[in-house]
């Protein structure tokens, strides 16, 4: 018997060791890459192969059932499990029931061959045919899975399977034909299949590597695709996104951020945050500039913590306008926890911030309007009774002066009483002006002429150290305004400018000019209104180089009765009156003041026509100062340093020079006057006043009695004077009934506040004149002379 070429026990021991290493290696691959099918099956296949090799190794020293049937079945099962591993790798079905059935059939046949037909040839033939069948099925799966032969590892495994099948067929044929001893053939076959198994394991490992490479490529493609999608998403976001490195250089910036900052793509590639700190300084929500440690980037860089909902402004773009953003910032760390990037996301909230500012302005305007409405209601309620009281004081004091000798000391006391009453009357007028309840006599007005007259009045109240300058265009567009009230506005502003100089040398400048309705200096709302009306704008500015105003004063300057002057020098109604008059003329007032640098008030009024409507000669004269205003006006009457105007009227005359408006001068033609007022004091005063003038007065405090007197004697009266605001029936109601009884009777109505509606209603009722109540007593003689004559 020839000696075997290879030592069978040694080969079996080597095969067991190799299978153990294979089992461990594929088990590790399965644990590391559980998503890859195959390594688990191949590990189990190696373990089952160990069982088969151990059975063959123990042949002769162990029961034949284990060494023969179990060993052959285990080796065949190992090939079957390796095939299942290949199918798992190729994602093909692996029915567990069929696998268990196949293993049972293999064991049963091997047992039959051992117990029934104890023929080694049959056992080896069955083993070889079964193995060939498994190899053929594996080749079929490879061909179906890679029909285009793109995977070299699968193609190599296919050819290895062909080689194994050929070797098994040769072994099956050579043993009976060539009479090769079974042990010799078995040792040769075992050595060959050990090499083939090693090569198969290498190919299985290559397949795992190929699958990992595939998944890596797929993951990279997916990552690239997600990066492209993310980049596209970020690029098309309406929100701005900026990614910065810790060295403050820009990594990524999207279109919205570039547009917000006014950057182009080239600037964005080389941009750093440092220029932003210099050229586009960040601004806090309160309008103050951020210091370095408040900048969101610096805070994230220092703390490593995210920041949320920070509102900041930045001067960006070609126009360097402040734009506002709602910003979030967070750190992006690497795998070791180190700061990799700082990511900014922000939304442009400029329009929202402007809307909020506009809302705040509207709230302030509403608050101011409510204050004006409340004060107007107060004025309407107080003016009637208060004017009656003041009128009685003034009238009786004047009558008392007439009854005294010229040198009497009591005349001086009466003069002080009259002065105090006139101050009270002026206060009521200011309240009515502030609440816009005094009448407007609006006519075509040249603001340049009004400014000139105002400055002539101011000359008498300023020192030679103060330079008064007027800059006015030669031909100004006319405005529809009340000259008296506009003069009061300009005089109030001039008085405040004098007070702001605090007795120091300085400059007060009045500037009047025409502006087109689309001029950037014109407030937006007024610009829209003037464009819609087809007219332009006339601007008046009053500026001084005085002390200026603090932020707190600027916020409260239009509040009624708020003043920074010492007690006795101001009522706190100057600027509220200015605001009320300007708004009553459909104008806008703006103020710019800096503490220690001065203040400028700018008034804008809609003109009555457009610049294009002026003649060529007029347009040529625009901007040329008028001859009557020499730029810097001479100061002829200096006053002491630190003085300021308390009112627009000159100082009261001395007692010796005083001449009463109600001086006793008998009328040339006596008239019968019917006077109606619910105040007994005024009835007594007016009767005395008119009777001293030689008139006959019939006075009533009850409306029905006055109407009944006219009904009984319709032609007995030459004039009827009636108060407007009376309980029960108003003066207009009385006038209507009286005029129905005596249509030719002149009727005048006096009121503490006169509106356009009241004047229109009085005119419709047939009233000849509406007299302002604060001037009513002093004007009665003139009204009687004019209407009753």
Automatic annotation (TrEMBL):
Gene3D superfamilies linked: 1.10.287.130, 3.40.50.2300, Histidine kinase-like ATPase, C-terminal domain, PAS domain
Reactions this protein catalyses: ATP + protein L-histidine = ADP + protein N-phospho-L-histidine
Disordered: annotated span: 622-659
Positions of post-translational 4-aspartylphosphate modification: 723
InterPro entries: CheY-like_superfamily (IPR011006), HATPase_C_sf (IPR036890), HATPase_dom (IPR003594), His_kinase_dom (IPR005467), HisK_dim/P_dom (IPR003661), HisK_dim/P_sf (IPR036097), PAS (IPR000014), PAS-like_dom_sf (IPR035965)
Domain Response regulatory: 672-788
Domain PAS: 226-266
Source superkingdom: Bacteria
Keywords: Membrane, Phosphoprotein, Transmembrane, Transmembrane helix
EC numbers, comma separated: 2.7.13.3
Polar residues bias locations: 640-659
Domain Histidine kinase: 381-609
Segments passing through the bilayer: 12-29, 41-59, 65-86, 98-119, 125-144, 156-178, 184-210
Protein name: histidine kinase
Organism this protein belongs to: Hydrogenophaga palleronii
């Amino acid at each position: 018997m020839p000696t075997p070429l290879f030592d069978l026990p040694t080969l079996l021991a080597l095969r067991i060791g190799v299978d153990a290493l294979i089992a461990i290696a594929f088990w590790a691959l399965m644990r590391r890459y559980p998503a890859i099918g195959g390594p688990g099956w191949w590990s189990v296949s190696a373990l089952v192969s160990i069982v088969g090799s151990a059975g063959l190794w123990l042949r002769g020293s162990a029961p034949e059932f284990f060494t023969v049937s179990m060993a052959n079945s285990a080796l065949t099962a190992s090939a079957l499990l390796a095939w299942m591993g290949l199918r798992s790798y190729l994602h093909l079905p692996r029915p567990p029931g069929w696998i268990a059935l196949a293993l049972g059939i293999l064991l049963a046949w091997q047992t039959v061959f051992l117990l029934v037909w104890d023929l080694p040839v049959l056992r080896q033939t069955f083993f070889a045919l079964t193995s060939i069948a498994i190899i053929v099925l594996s080749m079929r799966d490879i061909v179906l899975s890679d029909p285009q032969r793109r995977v070299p590892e699968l193609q190599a495994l296919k050819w290895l399977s062909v080689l194994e099948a050929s070797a098994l067929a040769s072994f099956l044929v050579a043993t009976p034909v060539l009479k090769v001893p079974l042990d010799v053939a078995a040792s040769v076959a075992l050595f060959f299949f050990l090499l083939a198994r090693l090569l198969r394991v290498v190919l299985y490992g290559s397949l795992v590597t190929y699958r990992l490479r595939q998944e890596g490529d797929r993951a990279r493609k997916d990552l690239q695709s997600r990066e492209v999608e993310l980049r596209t998403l970020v690029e098309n976001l309406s929100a701005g996104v900026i990614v910065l490195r810790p060295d403050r250089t820009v990594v990524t910036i999207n279109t919205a951020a570039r547009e917000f900052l006014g950057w182009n793509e080239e600037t964005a590639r080389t941009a750093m945050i440092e220029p932003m700190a210099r050229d586009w300084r960040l601004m806090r929500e309160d309008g103050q500039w951020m210091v370095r440690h408040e900048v969101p980037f610096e805070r994230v860089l220092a703390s490593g913590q995210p920041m949320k909902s920070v509102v900041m402004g930045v001067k960006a773009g070609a126009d360097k306008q402040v734009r506002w953003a709602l910003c979030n910032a967070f750190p992006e760390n690497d795998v070791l926890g180190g700061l990799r990037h700082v990511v900014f996301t922000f939304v442009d909230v400029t329009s929202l911030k402007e809307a909020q500012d506009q809302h705040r302005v509207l709230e302030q305007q509403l608050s101011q309007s409510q204050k004006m409405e409340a004060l107007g209601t107060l004025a309407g309620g107080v003016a009637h009774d208060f004017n009656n009281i003041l009128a009685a004081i003034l009238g009786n004091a004047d009558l008392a002066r007439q009854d005294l000798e010229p040198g009497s000391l009591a005349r001086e006391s009466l003069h002080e009483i009259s002065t105090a009453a006139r101050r009270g009357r002026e206060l009521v007028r200011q309240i009515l002006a502030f609440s816009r309840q005094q009448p407007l006599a609006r006519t075509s007005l040249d603001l340049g002429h009004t400014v000139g007259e105002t400055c002539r009045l101011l000359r008498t109240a300023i020192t030679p150290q103060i330079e008064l300058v007027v800059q006015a265009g030669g031909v100004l567009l006319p405005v529809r305004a009340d000259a008296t009230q506009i003069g009061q506005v300009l005089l109030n502003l001039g008085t405040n400018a004098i007070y702001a100089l605090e007795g120091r040398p300085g400059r007060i400048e009045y500037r009047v000019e025409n502006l087109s309705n689309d001029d950037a200096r014109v407030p937006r709302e007024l610009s829209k209104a003037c464009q819609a009306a087809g007219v332009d704008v006339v601007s008046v500015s009053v500026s001084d180089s005085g002390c200026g105003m603090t932020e707190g004063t600027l916020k409260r300057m239009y509040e009624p009765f708020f003043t920074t002057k010492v007690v006795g020098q101001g009522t706190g109604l100057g600027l509220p009156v200015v605001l009320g008059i300007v708004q009553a003329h459909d104008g806008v007032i703006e103020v710019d003041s800096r503490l220690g640098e001065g203040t400028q008030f700018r008034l804008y009024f809609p003109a009555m026509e457009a610049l294009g409507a002026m003649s060529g000669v007029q347009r040529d004269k625009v901007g040329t100062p008028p001859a009557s205003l020499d730029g810097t006006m001479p100061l002829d009457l200096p006053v002491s340093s630190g003085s300021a105007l308390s009112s627009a009227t000159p100082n009261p005359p001395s007692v010796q020079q005083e001449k009463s408006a109600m001086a006793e001068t008998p009328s040339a033609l006596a008239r019968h006057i019917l006077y109606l007022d619910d105040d007994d004091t005024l009835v007594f005063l007016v009767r005395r006043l008119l009777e001293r003038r030689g008139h006959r007065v019939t006075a009533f405090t009850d409306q029905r009695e006055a109407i009944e007197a006219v009904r009984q004697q319709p032609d007995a009266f030459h004039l009827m004077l009636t108060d407007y605001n009376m309980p029960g029936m108003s003066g207009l109601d009385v006038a209507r009934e009286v005029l129905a009884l005596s249509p030719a009777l002149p009727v005048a109505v006096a009121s503490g506040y006169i509106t356009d509606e009241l004047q229109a209603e009085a005119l419709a009722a047939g009233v000849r004149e509406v007299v302002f109540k604060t001037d009513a007593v002093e004007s009665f003689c003139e009204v009687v002379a004019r209407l009753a004559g």
